[in-house]
């Protein structure tokens, strides 16, 4: 009954181009455009190596999710898989933790929108900008899935074209001196200020936490499986292409930025993309990039709200959330789930008002630990899923490579990231909150009415 209801009402209106850009939109947000300045201070030019390492781990996690999404393309994604292959409690925790994750991610994205607006209009309070954008994106998400897909496609296209343009322009500065009086910048900035590893391997290791936060969102491909027109064809294409594109954008963009501008002169407030062109005196490029990073934050928040609505809908289908969240409007969008998720992100407006300086770090820490829990659940469930398929001698269309070593390697890496967080004062508090949050979910599961 649950599957039939989902298939009947959640409309398959997302094409390959939508899904590609939804995943890119979720993963290329404040982590790259805003948070990368903080990461650069931790590792210097070696941050490119950190992104490469993180990208490899993300590839395996995505393939683990893809293996299940192709076999079972459902709305609610890995919460449904945890529910089916691990048990009711893991499914309950997976779904609600993912919802919590994207409420917090949405808060992080909203929290920095005011910073970008203030680049042009410094007198507008950051909380006002956050509130206006929240209302706008919420309206987009309650129209229908195709409207959401189109908005996200164009939001993400702006980001992608801007990054490509920035890389091309940066290479022109490096090689031909374009925008630098005809004097080639060269690439000596990559090693001239303390070497390629100015903070040693320690800096690279510590930076892995923020790097993994940056990649949060790629798993949206799995969430979209229930609304893909042809999931068995589109999901493998999207996963394989999204991973290398994200690596190109992160590693390529950061390499160019660090070649153009000394890493040790970069400020941690504002976007490094905007900073660089402001410092070299190209105000038109700086204004354009500020517009881009603003749309990037809107795009990532758009993706976060989309995934929240679908996850709450999936939980309602499992009877792990009130029936209220299973209501769909005439366009087939889970309107109640979207509106409630949007209401929770209003907390951002309050925190932005009370402590605008630290708000992004607060939300980033919470988002990072919840993302790690999500990814760990994906990997564990994939191991159980594969074991059941092998025992039943059922074929797999889209296999995760290097199974099971790839899954165990990624799980060990995620444990390492949690250990690193314990040594970072700004991240440590989230390790205290996570056990309390998981305990609350356990209690909620025990108290929920049994079917």
Automatic annotation (TrEMBL):
Alphabetical UniProt keywords: Amino-acid transport, Cell membrane, Membrane, Transmembrane, Transmembrane helix, Transport
Q: What is its main location?
A: membrane
Q: Where are the membrane-spanning stretches?
A: 21-40, 46-65, 127-145, 157-179, 199-221, 242-264, 276-301, 333-354, 360-381, 402-423, 429-445
Please name the InterPro entries in this protein's record. Answer: AA-permease/SLC12A_dom (IPR004841)
- Highest rank taxon of the organism: Bacteria
Membrane-protein topology: Multi-pass membrane protein
Q: Where in the cell is it found?
A: Cell membrane
* One Pfam entry name: AA_permease
The Amino acid permease/ SLC12A domain sits at 18-448
What does the similarity note say?
A: Belongs to the amino acid-polyamine-organocation (APC) superfamily. Amino acid transporter (AAT) (TC 2.A.3.1) family.
What is the protein name for this chain?
A: Aromatic amino acid transport protein AroP
